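Re: the 121-residue chain
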Amino acid sequence: QVQLVESGGNLVQAGGSLRLSCAASGSIFRVNTMGWYRQAPGKQREMVALITNRDSTNYSASVRGRFTISRDNAKNMVFLQMNSLRPEDTASYYCYANVKSGVRELSNDYWGQGTQVTVSS
């Protein structure tokens, strides 16, 4: 099994910044794509940013230019630097990782428990 633990969520004023962190642990042979999704009350979960193990990135249009995703492969961690935060960024942010647990095993998707980001106007 693989566990993802997020940290860094908080209450911040509009225009402020936050940095989310997520650490993967457990049965890990290789971590493939990692990323962040978010879900606001009454809305579907949406992709925020993804990063491959070769550092190729993909952002949603709503955060491109404001958020930056990065990772530390040695520590199996992914980060999300969020700048110029807006009230519409308020949501629970979930860490995602696609992980291969063994050389002969298939990769599986894992999710963290979520960390709350609240942006006040």
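The chain has no helices and eleven strands.
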